[in-house]
Amino acid sequence: MARADLIERRREEILGAAYRLFGEKGYHETNIADIAAVLEIGHGTFYRYYQNKLDIFIHVIDLVIEKIGGVVASEEPRTTETLDEYRAQLQRIGERLFDLFVSDRHLAQILFYEAPGIDRALDEKIERALDVFGSFTEQYLVNGKKKGFLRGDLNAPVTALAVNAMIFEGVRRVQRATHPKKAKDEWIRAITRLMLEGLAA
Q: How many structural domains does the chain have?
């Protein structure tokens, strides 16, 4: 294996360990020694790859954003031609988002509970990411307006952020539910129904 590949693999190992620890113990309760201990490496080895705890946490947030972005951008918003297709598309995206957060409980813990307030630049990075997620959702709403599934006077940019806020709140609730599968289905049904009946043309 080439040296560059070994370096990249070690970076990913350190990042993976940090991701798990930040998700389990929290940002403030995790230190460099904890990350090094999990991998059985020395402090010096850690500092060859990341500057400090904040530096690796920023990379963890990049990983979180990448995971969510992969789901949000997984479909082409303009492909649906009928209301049934549109409803099915919304439900698929909802399922994937909820499944992502439910299958990886560190994701919501890091993004919603650990990250806010640690660093101003980090807060701005997350805010930009939420805006990007909103722009993807906006494309689905714009398609819904064009096809006549949603009201013509709908404010797509603002509504997109409101829809995403509902999804993130749903994720938070589902993760703490006694019966996550049932709660997930209820949230997806409620959000889809609100969009198609509460906002319908």
A: 2
pLDDT at 20 over 60: yes
Work out the burial of residue 54: count CB atoms within 10 Å of its CB; fewer than 13 is exposed, 13-18 middle, 19 or more buried. Answer: middle
Kindly report the pTM of this predicted structure: 0.88
What residues make up the domain containing 134? 59-198
Please state, in angstroms and rounded to a whole number, the distance separating the CA atoms of residues 69 and 111.
Answer: 13
pLDDT of 200? 59
Contacts of 151 (CB under 8 A, 6+ apart): 145, 199, 200, 201
Quote the DSSP letter at residue 155.
Answer: -
What integer is the mean pLDDT of 138-164? 93
pLDDT at 189: 92
How far apart (Å, rounded) are the C-alpha atoms in residues 187 and 193? 10
Reply yes or no on whether the pLDDT at 17 is more than 70.
yes
Same domain, 149 and 88: yes
CATH number at residue 189: 1.10.357.10
In the chain, what are the helix, strand and coil shares in percent, each to the nearest 5?
A: 75, 0, 20
